[in-house]
Specification:
A: 96 residues, Cytochrome Bc1 Complex, Chain D, domain 2, 6 helices, B: 419 residues, Immunoglobulin-like, Sulfite Oxidase, Chain A, domain 2, 2 domains, five-stranded mixed beta sheet
Chain lengths: 96, 419
């Protein structure tokens, strides 16, 4: 609910926002596209959900963000983002 | 304590107790393990959090809070460290923080008002905070607020979501007014089915569903369901729903809408994402009450909490000098039947003894428990606690796995070495 009661929410969250900016994604192909996630949530969500998803798991997560939450991600970018997340935050293959 | 497992068997049960990942952290590193990284669930005798979650989290103080375990910055999700559960009532400054949406307004007490209405209400009301306090009888309840996904990070195999350890919960004395009194003032029409709640928080994007929850009418009308504006004798902290939030004792935290802004009495099931898709359990796996108007073909909404306990006095891998007593202390809670007993074993499950229960603060509250056992001979052992409610429900030995990671109430297994 958006109401007139909103008084400087960003001011209150200022210190946390400064901390959040220190959370960065690992370098790698597709990182720029994965950066789109930051529109709705801090990037620590990605690190927190690692490393146990394979590429199919990450694809399902991205699709949930698009379909259930309206994430501003082009369908054409899903593959590249899933590949980036699987490579950098994906399940570690057995034996490694 | 006559069992003295060999090093190999100790390794195997430590691995079982804390998840395979902990197997490398054996006896030589016992002191490190006892201290553990911030918020390690392995150090508390559970399966370990996902490695990424453990590496990412750290202690961080939000304004007005003590340092809590930061899971995510935005929306803010912060967990209460285990030491704050050594008392039955959780301090406001240490109470966990959980939001779904990043738009969190700082609501002013004077500007705030609660809208009451809906197609099944006789009339519409707009109530300010002073009016709410003066026109309705005060009511108070001591109750556990626990996130549905508390302990999600302990699931094996892991499931996605906020990878909570054990601290997405707290117990407080909530004071406010009864929702049923507010609804009586608005008038509830025949045919009312659910009551729908919206808070002042909002999504970052227009397309994201706003966080709106509903309750069955009978739960909304329960004597214990409150619109609370005080927590432990102080105004609600901003991060816990200032100036008023819903209190649904026994039910999981998802229903405890913060910064409560509107209450609607309706005749049809609420269908938004947060009711119809999120917070769902596979049908028939848990013996919790059914939210009849929201049951779907394959799944149903989570409702009340399952019985659970947490040992707060010991860390897995801890060494205790022989001759010193093994002090097992903690808290137990359930979905509102109340705790009947907590049994404790200090010999890896060979024998169980009833723990002494602390003061009864009501059936919705944490109940403290304690047991002191002598340590006669050196060796390794597993300490466990198992709570049973007055309705006969007991904690499980094996996880009831479900896709969203709810209702983890597996018995904790703390490895202790008597030296």
């Amino acid at each position: 609910m958006r109401t007139v009661l909103v008084i400087g929410a960003m001011l209150f969250a200022g210190a946390a926002a400064a901390q959040e900016s220190k959370v960065v994604l690992k370098d790698g192909p597709g990182r720029d596209k994965a950066q789109a996630c930051v529109a709705c949530h801090s990037l620590d969500y990605i690190q927190m959900n690692s490393r146990f998803l394979d590429k199919a798991g990450w694809t399902a997560s991205i699709n949930k963000m698009i379909n259930a939450f309206g994430a501003p991600i082009e369908k054409a970018d899903v593959e590249a983002i899933a590949a980036y997340l699987a490579a950098n935050y994906g399940a570690v293959p057995a034996g490694k | 304590m006559n069992k003295r497992p060999s090093r190999a068997s100790r390794r195997s049960f430590l691995a079982k107790a804390t998840g395979a990942g902990a197997a490398s952290l054996l006896a030589p590193a016992a002191r490190v393990l006892a201290a553990g990284p911030v918020g390690s669930s392995g150090a508390l005798g559970f399966a370990e959090l996902p490695d990424g979650a453990l590496a990412e989290q750290a202690l961080y103080a939000l304004p007005g809070k003590v340092p809590l375990i930061k899971k995510t910055f935005r929306p803010p999700n912060f967990e209460t460290p285990v030491e704050y559960f050594r008392t039955a009532v959780t301090p406001n400054k240490a109470f966990f923080v959980r939001y779904h949406l990043a738009g969190i307004p700082q609501v002013g007490a004077k500007e705030w008002s609660l809208s009451v209405g809906g197609e099944s209400a006789e009339r519409e009301l707009k109530l300010g905070l002073a009016q709410l306090k003066s026109e309705f009888k005060p009511a108070q309840v001591t109750a556990v607020c626990q996130c549905s996904g508390n302990r999600r990070g302990l699931f094996e195999p892991h499931v996605t979501g906020v990878e909570w350890g054990v601290g997405a919960m707290g117990n407080a004395v909530w004071r406010g007014v009864r929702l049923k009194d507010v609804l009586a003032k608005a008038g509830v029409k025949a045919g009312a089915l659910e009551v729908v709640f919206d808070g002042a928080d909002h999504p970052a994007l227009e397309k994201t569903p706003d966080f709106v929850k509903s309750l069955p009418l009978e739960v909304a009308l329960d004597d214990n369901t409150l619109v609370a504006f005080e927590m432990n004798g102080a105004p609600l902290p901003h991060w816990n729903g200032f100036p008023a939030r819903l209190i649904v004792p026994g039910w999981t935290g998802t229903y405890w809408v913060k910064h409560l802004a509107s209450v609607k009495v309706v005749s049809q099931p609420e269908k938004n994402f947060w009711m119809s898709a999120a917070y769902r359990l596979p049908k028939g796996r848990f013996k919790t009450p059914s939210f009849q108007s929201q049951v779907a073909a394959a799944n149903e909404p989570i409702t009340s909490m399952v019985v659970n306990s947490l040992i707060t006095s010991l860390r897995s891998g801890q060494q205790i000098a022989r001759g010193k007593p093994l002090e097992v202390k903690g808290v137990a809670w359930d979905g509102g039947a109340g705790i009947a007993r907590v049994e404790v074993t200090t010999d890896s499950g060979a024998t169980w003894q009833p723990a002494q229960l602390g003061r009864d603060l009501g059936r919705f509250s944490f109940r403290e428990f304690s047991l002191s056992a002598p340590t006669r001979s050196p060796g390794s052992t597993v300490v466990m606690a198992r709570a049973t409610s007055t309705s006969g429900e007991t904690q499980v030995e094996q996880l009831i796995h479900n896709p969203a990671g709810y209702h983890h109430n597996v018995v904790q297994r703390i490895y202790v070495e008597i030296v």
